[in-house]
Design goal:
The chain is mainly alpha-helical. The chain has four helices and no strands. It folds into two domains: 30 residues; 57 residues, 3-methyladenine DNA Glycosylase II, Chain A, domain 3, CATH 1.10.15. The structure holds iron/sulfur cluster.
């Protein structure tokens, strides 16, 4: 009976220690995304059609911010003035620029 109790206590302690360790590691190695990605994704049409050459609007937004991709590649967004809105967002600068 005592062996079972020791086993339960040991597993509980190990689980707690592993949880705390993972929590600390998650905070320490957290990768913060440039807020401009979300802002650009918000002004894109959200059609996820792939006409820009990326698998979706968010991938295109990330390419603009992190890879310096051209800002006028969203075909459905041309009539909506998306390129000008993206230029405004990019002109603000960000933590990676
Ligand atoms: S072309 Fe525009 S709407 Fe289509 S996936 Fe690219 S960003 Fe989204």
């Amino acid at each position: 009976m005592m062996q079972l109790l020791y086993g339960i206590v040991l597993l509980t302690v190990m689980g707690f220690v592993a949880g705390v360790g993972l929590g600390i590691a998650a905070k320490k190695f957290e990768v913060k995304e440039d807020p401009r990605v979300a802002e650009i994704a918000k002004v894109l049409p959200g059609a996820n059609c792939g006409l820009c050459g990326y698998p979706g609007c968010e991938a295109y937004a990330k390419a603009i911010v992190y890879k310096g991709e051209a800002m006028g590649k969203c075909v459905p967004g041309k009539k909506m003035g998306v390129e000008a809105k993206i230029r405004e967002i990019m002109a603000k600068g960000g933590p990676t620029s």
